[in-house]
Every structure is written in structure tokens, then in C-alpha cells.
Specification:
mainly alpha; 2 strands; two-stranded antiparallel sheet; about 270 residues
Length: about 270
């Protein structure tokens, strides 16, 4: 048994390193591909992508690894009893409990017809990404992060990161709820969003999510956290640009042309 422990540790570290490298490699690939391709779900749905699911089913299915991976892995990491690690994984789970369990409930009344507008292939790809990323974030916090005897530098960046994360979470959730309410008012169709951050950007929900994971990267101060933030931007920035273009085409007279895609006054 004693001789197997170093081997297991080495294998685990190799898996973690390969997974981390994979996330860094798919990030620029994702960004480049989305310059020419708009993922066909939501307002960009179009037929021809094979079997589809109702969004209220697709979201909890594809996001489920973000809950079952942390809940399965965290209790077996060497940091499982560390209060900082517990706090960190709790913030991660907070976001994904909302995204996996609550957000799909919001979609149900907004889409009474329960139309299947989420291609199964897109849900599958998202499921695979979430497997990879949930493993990386959880394993770093639960096992590889050095959280013993944190000094002033740790607490400084942790508190700044926490403030950034919470502000992003609030913006993300409030914007998502506003969009769901607007869709309900439109009888399942679309209207021009008004008020709050919607006056500055087309996708404050995406901006909020990017801010969240920037805060996460600061709190964890890890290559895994940075990779997650960069991938989030690579995925959401092109999609936000596509949303802005869609609104301008669908509501050419109504939609404010000064409204940016995701970064106020900039982009």
C-alpha cells in the first residue's frame, strides 16, 4: 500500500495538469470559432442541428457536473476540513446551484409551449466542458491549493475577489430574471430590454458572469481559476456581440445603436 500512494499522487497530478492544459488550449479555439459561428440556442436557434431539448431540461442536464463533481470530489481532498476551502467551494456551488436548479424553473413559465430549442449536441458539448472545468476548480481547491497559514496578501486578494464575485453574481442573476420576465411579457417572444445595465450593454447577464469568474480567479489565485475566467470571456464576448447584432437587425428603429455588447462604453 505504501508504494502505491506516490504513484496515485503522480497519476492524479498528471491528470490535473493535462486537464488544465486542455482548458487553456480550447480557450483560443473557442474564441476563434465563435467569430464565424453562433451557437444555435436561445434567440439564435435554427433547425438542422439534430434532436433538441426544451431549455428547462437542457440547462439542468448540461450544468449538472458543476454540482455532482464538487460534491463527489471535495470530501476526499486534503483541504476538505479547511474553512477557506469550504468557503471557496461554497461560492462556486452558489453560482451553479442557481444556474442548475433555479434558473431552469424560471424558464418554465416563460416558455409555456416547452418548445425544444436547445440542440442536444450543444448541451452535450457544454456537459463535457463542465465535467472538465468542475474537476479542475474542485481539485485545485480541495487538494492542490496551499491554504495553510494565509498571510495579509492572501486575505487582501481574497476579499477583493469576493467583492468582485458577489457584484458579478448579483448582476448576472438580476439580468437573467429581467430577461425571463420580459420574455413572459412578450408571450414567449422578444422585446428590447430597458433599464439598469441594459441601457449600457446588450448582455449585462454575460458581463455579470465574466465579473464573477474574474473574482473567482482573484480568490483562488490559481492557473485553474484564471483559465476559467479566460474561457468565460472567450465564450461570452462573441455571443454578446451576436446578441447585439441580432437586436439591431430585429429592432432597427427601437434598439439603441449606442448600446455596447458586453463592456460599457467600450465593446
Amino acid at each position: 500500500m505504501a508504494s502505491s500512494s506516490p504513484s496515485n499522487s503522480s497519476s492524479d497530478h498528471s491528470l490535473f495538469s493535462i486537464s488544465l492544459l486542455s482548458l487553456y488550449l480550447i480557450t483560443p479555439m473557442t474564441f476563434l470559432s465563435l467569430q464565424f459561428f453562433q451557437a444555435p440556442y436561445g434567440k439564435h436557434f435554427r433547425p438542422g442541428w439534430g434532436p433538441s431539448l426544451p431549455p428547462s431540461i437542457a440547462w439542468p442536464t448540461m450544468e449538472s457536473p458543476t454540482l455532482f463533481i464538487p460534491l463527489s470530489l471535495f470530501p476526499f481532498g486534503q483541504n476538505r476540513s479547511n474553512p477557506i476551502a469550504v468557503a471557496l467551494i461554497s461560492f462556486y456551488l452558489l453560482h451553479y446551484f442557481h444556474r442548475t436548479c433555479l434558473y431552469p424553473l424560471y424558464l418554465r413559465p416563460a416558455r409555456a409551449s416547452a418548445r425544444a430549442t436547445f440542440p442536444l449536441i450543444i448541451a452535450f458539448l457544454a456537459f463535457v466542458f463542465n465535467l472538465l472545468n468542475a474537476y479542475l476548480q474542485t481539485r485545485w481547491i480541495s487538494h492542490y491549493a496551499d491554504l495553510e497559514n494565509p498571510g495579509w496578501w492572501f486575505w487582501g486578494r481574497f476579499l477583493v475577489g469576493l467583492a468582485v464575485f458577489v457584484s458579478g453574481f448579483v448582476l448576472n442573476v438580476r439580468s437573467d430574471l429581467a430577461l425571463v420576465r420580459l420574455k413572459r411579457e412578450a408571450g414567449g417572444g422578444y422585446k428590447v430590454p430597458r433599464g439598469g445595465m441594459f441601457e449600457l450593454v446588450s448582455c449585462p447577464n454575460y458581463l455579470g458572469e465574466a465579473i464573477e469568474w474574474l473574482g473567482w480567479a482573484l480568490m483562488t489565485w490559481s492557473w485553474a481559476g484564471l483559465a476559467f475566467f479566460l474561457y468565460t470571456c472567450a465564450n461570452l464576448v462573441p455571443r454578446a456581440r451576436g446578441h447585439r447584432r441580432w437586436y439591431l437587425e430585429k429592432f432597427p428603429e427601437e434598439y439603441p445603436k449606442s448600446r455596447k455588447a458586453i463592456i460599457p462604453f467600450v465593446y
